[in-house]
Amino acid sequence: MKLEIKGLSFSFGDKKVLKDVTFDVEPGEFIGLMGPNGSGKTTLLRCIMNYLNPPADSVLLDGVSTNTQSSEDLARTFAVVPQSSSTDFTFSAYDIVMMGRLPHRSSRFAGPTMEDAAAVQEAMERTDTWKYATRRFFALSGGERQRVIIARAVAQRPKALLLDEPTVYLDINGQLEVMDLIKTLNKEQGITVISVLHDVNLAARYCDKIALLSNGWLEAYGSPVAVLNPDTIQSVYGVDVVVRKDPFTNAVYVMPHSSLAAGPRHGRRVHLLCGGGVGGPFMKSLLDAGFGVSTGVLNVLDSDFENARDLRIPTVAELPFSAISESAFRDNIALVRDSEFVVLSPFPVGPGNLKNVEAAKQAAAMGKRVIVVRPEEGRGIDFVGGRADEIVKELISSGAIPVKDMADMLREISRGVA
Amino acid sequence: MSLSRPDTEDEGVDFAKVMRRRLVWLVLLVVGLVASAFVAVLVGTLGPIGPGDPEYISFEEAFGAIFHGQGDLPDYYANVFWEVRIPRVLLAAAVGAALACAGTAMQAVFRNPMADPFIVGVSSGASLGAVVASLTGLASIAVLGALMTPTLAFASALLTVFVVYYLGVVGGKVYVNTLLLSGVAVAAFLGAMVSLLIYFAGQQYHRIIFWMLGSLSMASWTAVIVVVLAAVLGIVLVYISSRDLNALLLGEETAHNLGVDAEGLKTLMLVVAAVMTAAAVAFTGVIGFVGLIIPHMLRLVVGADHRILVPAATLSGAIFLIWADTVARAVIAPTELPVGIITALCGGPFFLYLLRRNRILGDAL
Amino acid sequence: MTSKSMGKTTKNVWTVLIVILVAVFSFAGGYLAGITISGQNEGFTIVDDYGRTVTLDGIPQRIVSIAPSSTEILFAVGAGPQVVGVDNYSDYPAEAAGLPKVGDFPPSTEAIVALQPDLIVGGDLVPLAQLEQLANQGIPYVLFADRTLEDVMKTIRLAGVITGHVSEADEVAGELEDRIDAVKAKIQDSGLPKPKVYVEYDDFMGFWTYGPGSFGDDLITSAGGVNIAHNTSSEYPTVESEYVIAQDPDIIIFTTGPWSTLSKDTYINRPGWSTIDAVENGDIYGVDANLISRYGPRVIDCLELLAEIFYPEVFP
Hints:
The complex is a heterotrimer. Chain B has helices at 15-41, 59-68, 75-109, 122-135, 145-168, 176-201, 205-213, 221-240, 242-248, 252-257, 262-284, 290-302, 306-330, 339-357, and strands at 169-170, 173-174. Chain B is mostly helical. Chain B has one domain (15-357): ABC transporter involved in vitamin B12 uptake, BtuC, CATH 1.10.3470.10. In chain B, a hairpin with a 2-residue loop joins strand 1 and strand 2. In chain C, helix 6 (149-163) packs antiparallel against helix 7 (166-190) and helix 7 (166-190) packs parallel to helix 13 (299-310). In chain C, strand 3, helix 2 (68-76) and strand 4 (83-86) form a beta-alpha-beta unit. Chain C is α/β, with parallel strands linked by helices. Chain C has helices at residues 3-35, 68-76, 94-97, 109-114, 128-136, 149-163, 166-190, 215-222, 241-247, 264-268, 277-281, 289-293, 299-310; strands at residues 44-47, 53-56, 63-65, 83-86, 119-122, 141-143, 196-202, 207-209, 226-227, 238-239, 251-256, 284-288. The longest helix of chain C is centred in the N-terminal third of the chain and has 33 residues, at 3-35. Chains in contact: A-B, B-C. The interface between B and C is large, with 48 and 42 residues.
């Protein structure tokens, strides 16, 4: 069943909630509808299911406008899973799922049949809710209830599943349960899925395509990788993010920056010596404190290299699997020269990057304020037979300031600034 | 589904078994209804189940009078059964069934366990009509007089519902919360008007008490025919809407997504319930409690699925009111009590007991 | 519940109980305090039909009557000129109807006080609290309560004492007693069997009749009829249809009046009543509601009317 949205505009009275939205959904696709609050996602979903009446011919199923179809026909096409379901009445889970068979009754007056019973049992077994069948619906947990509702949707044998933020009231366990279930139904039965999702990473992980709405406009429509990039997200959500790939699923995932405005940019520069992922927090806290930051030398495969790149910090890079070369070392010193402070973070030191520690020595010689971060004695970060430790001792005895942690470091630097 | 046992970890549901069990329930209820009616007809101040004041009719005589006509029995025996008791028992059954069924429908439409058949103003409207009929002397017009009170009560009840409905519907959509509130407001207003009229009529308060509590003492074959017709029509319409009502209970949006025409359903149920209830109230006054509690009691026993709940509640309502009226007639014979006292006295504690037994806490019914 | 929360709940319950008890006792106390009648040293004391001892300064000259039956009694003993105000329903005699009105139930305190009465006379349905208030302001009240014809005679005499028309009252009462005796004697002499009578005063949601202890019951009995509701359990019961059918009364009496909906047809058309003698023979009669329920001197008229109905051969 192909769904086409063509120029869908919708208003509540004077308020325009959807503006000329156009996109297509191929059969069997898993689409995520996303956007900030008030962007029109739920309205869009409701227009698709025809609970709200969209303008004629703006929602087409296999070429036929939904306006022309009866609500029973539409109920055989779409099954809806809302955010949450509850009732004060004592329906059992079975009763709830049986209601999904309503669109398939032979006449207005027909009661449930053995065929209906079979469909219900199958749907509940598939969603692992068959064991709750006689339990009262309201007595189930949030996750269990959602699964029962999904069972109802399955029993409805729809061509498409429409979900409105199905995981918003679930804990992390429940969230994954539900999303996995939906994905399974999508893949195994070819049911198209259109779901409003608020969790960007969930969407990135499960959706084939994402429709990103902002203020009623369709800002982007495409694969998660294409849609979820820092620039689009900044323009739609107004949030700075860093986009990475989940190392296990290869799906993109999004990490927001701190929303705290960085302190007054006082233009003082700090050069950070780091590696092995240790530098990430330092980079961020220094940036937040308003300093300009540079770093090096970092191997291209080092996670600190990625961190620096994502935070747009000038970096001296080195080729994969290579020790720091002379030219890299010189570039590093050049950056040191441009900075006022040098921070030597407690990164693991090996033969390949011992030169980064030596850079600190040179910085001190150049008269730069060097701050050495040494959390505890004997932390096992020296893999060069103690030579790094020796250099550090020398540094401290010749004026470098030792600090125990990041907070201390910031204090020292600020003192230096004041 | 019988939910009389609290949550157990059963493996699923045997559909066929459940359907069979429901049928058994219904058959039992029908048998219970017939038996209750039969026994009730034998109860009265003249016996055979009763004090025998001023004289005693034996069982033999009773059967003789019922089935074989007069024979050599006193001429009024047959009258007592065929003109007084049997219409009264039948009316009790019809009214009990109508009120319980209407109550079930209203609870679904308003998605509110506190809803009862009078929620949209039927009782206050009917009261106004009845009081006007009797106070203006319309009820004492020669031939039509006897029907004047029920007719005016019925018409006034429907008119009231129409007004309340009109206030609660905007642009074709029935807003149940608005409906509820306008029902409350209209009922208060009409109630005040009724009190005013009674007051100006001067010290006739006892009348209003019996009307407000309800009584089956004005039963006649005319009343039976009218109420049975209205009740049967209403019950059938509510029953065939059972699955739709189930869906409606989950919310308007869910109902729509399951293909149910929520607006049409709500309107139909309101009209049906109003007609059934108005017909009942017109002849018996406002018998409370049946329409509110019977559906709940049955929900606790047979579950919330309307396909079993509607017939079960309907039959139970009939049985309940037959018994309540029997008690109202017999307890201080030959004087009568208003049946509404009995329905409240008996039903309340029993419902509380069921509630406790099911260990359902809070307001989750 | 934990013992701590149990303790808290118990405390709450006790608090509520104490508050309620305090409220009840203060109301009761206030009420009782108001009941003492401030009497004066001169004048005379009488005991009214409720057994209340009331002290009057002298013969009351400005009487307000808040019950139609009391009004009729006052006028009958000649105390009409001493009556300055009556309730809305006091329409007999004509002079009473023309007097200033003080309302019905409850009467208006303002209207009463405006008339500056020195005595209030009431019947059965009285707003006790209101009267107590007026008593505290120096306006005493006296209550007439009658359940039988005999009671009415006593009350007439009492009214005479109160209003200073002792001899007139005696005369009136004596006359009425003679008439009662005459009726009773005639009935007795005739040797006719007593007819069974069913009297109904309303049929709204039930058949309302006069039970034992009610005035109507006494009237029926005194007029030589047997009230079929005489052995029921309350003064104004609703009886079951089949009871009346089985009793098979010879005569049916219904009350008429502006608010009555009863007529002869009511009984002819009632389901199952066709076998009743009274219905078969058409012995269904209407009686003015005021006559049968208002226990003033006119009850004798009602008595005679009923006797005529019950014994047509004796009282043509």
